[in-house]
């Protein structure tokens, strides 16, 4: 696919480094999304419940991704522009609030660094044209969902649906998969996990995974095509099972321990996205019907 922005794919090192710096800024914004989106959802649910009960709204003040300004949760000190420079501000402040000296979570700069590094990788792999831009959107939505699911065991519709429809739109021109494979992938991804959960509920009497997981796998199928779904499910299941067993042993809670599956789906989807040709070649040689 020809580049329409800067250079032909794959991009050179300079363009990839620029994408990495851009990714640091996006990572700072993703930290806001990861923290605020679940709170926004809870506030909306509270107000909907109050309305259904003929009560006044519980939350009336504005709260979104822009308002109010970011502030220290301990002392309320509003974060200035100089204190909000990705990674650098954290290092200069020594990982502490400039006002009350309360510690700042190291996850903030880690998310920024991870986003920057993966942004550079995406542009290096897919170039700086429309395919590269689409790959960045794919990456950013997956990163936000990964950390939100870790924190809350929720995969917001505000992220899964744009990822799903974005994959179908991007593949109108066969950017990463044919539209035929993308549509089947979206349907197969959703209904495969839905069926597994349905059978689990018949046996155990309760859901084994959230509906957000169905939507996420459907979205991955829309981007990658249906032939990549076996690899995504296998990789995510193996890693998730290993991590789950370790956590169950450490926490001594047995099968009652709830483990988010979204992060493992997202990681497997990202690996398959970057290494699709190699994985497709392997799957095609092992299972000819997937070709």
Would you kindly provide a written description of the structure presented here, covering whatever features stand out?
The protein has helices at residues 13-52, 88-92, 107-126, 130-152, 157-170, 179-204, 211-224, 229-251, 262-274, 276-286. Helices cover 65% and strands 0% of the residues. The protein is mainly alpha-helical and 291 residues long. The chain is globular, with a radius of gyration of 21 Å. It contains 10 helices and no strands.
Give the topology:
Elements: H1 13-52, H2 88-92, H3 107-126, H4 130-152, H5 157-170, H6 179-204, H7 211-224, H8 229-251, H9 262-274, H10 276-286
Helix pairs in contact: 1-3, 1-4, 3-4, 4-5, 4-9, 5-7, 6-7, 7-9, 8-9
In short:
The protein is an all-alpha fold and 291 residues long.
Number of helices: 10
* Oligomeric state as shown: single chain
- Helix-strand topology string: HHHHHHHHHH
| Sheet/helix structural class | mainly alpha
- Extended strand count: 0
Query: What sort of overall outline do the alpha carbons produce when their principal axes are compared?
Result: globular
Biggest pleated-sheet summary: none
* Head-to-tail CA distance between termini: 21 Å
Helical residue percent band:
55-70%
Strand content: under 5%
Average pLDDT, all residues? 89
Low-pLDDT runs of 5+ residues are 1-8
C-alpha Rg (nearest Å): 21 Å
Which key features would you list for this structure?
291 residues; 65% helix; mainly alpha
């Amino acid at each position: 696919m020809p580049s329409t922005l800067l250079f032909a794919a794959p991009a050179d090192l300079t363009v990839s480094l620029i994408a990495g710096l851009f990714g640091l800024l996006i990572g700072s914004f993703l930290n806001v999304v990861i923290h605020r989106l679940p709170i926004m959802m809870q506030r909306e649910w509270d107000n909907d419940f109050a309305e259904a009960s003929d009560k006044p709204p519980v939350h009336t003040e504005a709260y979104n991704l822009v308002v109010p300004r970011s502030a220290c949760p301990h002392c309320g000190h509003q974060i200035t522009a100089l204190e909000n420079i990705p990674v650098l501000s954290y290092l200069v402040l020594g990982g502490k609030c400039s006002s009350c000296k309360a510690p700042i979570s190291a996850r903030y700069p880690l998310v920024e660094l991870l986003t920057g590094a993966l942004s550079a990788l995406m542009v290096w792999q897919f170039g700086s044209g429309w395919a590269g831009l689409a790959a960045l959107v794919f990456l950013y939505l997956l990163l936000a969902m990964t950390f939100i699911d870790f924190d809350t065991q929720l995969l917001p519709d505000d992220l899964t649906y744009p990822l799903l429809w974005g994959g179908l739109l991007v593949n109108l021109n066969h950017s990463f998969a044919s539209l035929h494979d993308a549509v089947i992938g979206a349907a197969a991804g959703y209904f495969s996990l839905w069926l597994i959960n349905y059978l689990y509920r018949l046996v155990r009497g309760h859901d084994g995974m959230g509906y957000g997981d169905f939507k996420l796998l459907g979205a991955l199928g829309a981007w990658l095509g249906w032939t990549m779904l076996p690899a995504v499910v296998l990789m995510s299941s193996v890693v998730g099972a290993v991590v789950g067993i370790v956590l169950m042993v450490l926490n001594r809670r047995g099968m009652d321990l709830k483990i988010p599956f979204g992060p493992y789906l997202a990681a497997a989807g990202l690996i398959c996205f970057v290494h699709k040709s190699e994985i497709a070649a392997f799957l095609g040689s092992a299972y000819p019907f997937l070709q």
